[in-house]
Design a protein that fits this description.
By secondary structure, the protein is of the alpha+beta class. Helix content is about 45%, strand content about 30%. The chain is built from 1 helix and 4 strands, in the order αββββ. It has a 4-stranded antiparallel beta sheet with strand order 1-2-3-4, with helices on one face. The radius of gyration is 21 Å and the shape is rod-shaped. The N and C termini lie far apart (about 70 Å).
Length: about 90
C-alpha cells in the first residue's frame, strides 16, 4: 500500500509540475508577442514623438491591440492580428 501511495503522490506532483510549465510557457509566449507588437509600433512611429504606449491586457490568444499618444497630443489605436499591424488615428 505504501508503494501505491508513493506512486500516486509522484504522479500527482508530476501533473502539477506539467501544468505549471504549460502556464509559464503560455505567459512567456504572450510576453514575446507583446514585445514584437511594441517593436512594430515603435518602428512605425519615430521614437522621439511617442509619449505613452499601452497594450490592452484582455485580448484573445493571437490578437493584441492598444494605443499610443504622441507628444503633440494625437492618439493612435493599433491592432496586431492575422493580417498584420493596423494603425489608425483616433478621432476626437
Amino acid at each position: 500500500m505504501k508503494v501505491k501511495k508513493s506512486w500516486l503522490v509522484a504522479g500527482g506532483l508530476t501533473l502539477v509540475g506539467l501544468a505549471y510549465v504549460t502556464y509559464q510557457g503560455k505567459q512567456w509566449l504572450k510576453e514575446k508577442q507583446q514585445a514584437r507588437l511594441l517593436a512594430q509600433v515603435r518602428a512605425h512611429f519615430p521614437a522621439q514623438e511617442i509619449s505613452v504606449v499601452y497594450v490592452n491586457p484582455q485580448e484573445t490568444a493571437g490578437d493584441f491591440s492598444g494605443g499610443l499618444v504622441l507628444t503633440d497630443g494625437t492618439v493612435w489605436q493599433f491592432a496586431l492580428g492575422e493580417d498584420g499591424l493596423t494603425v489608425e488615428e483616433e478621432s476626437a
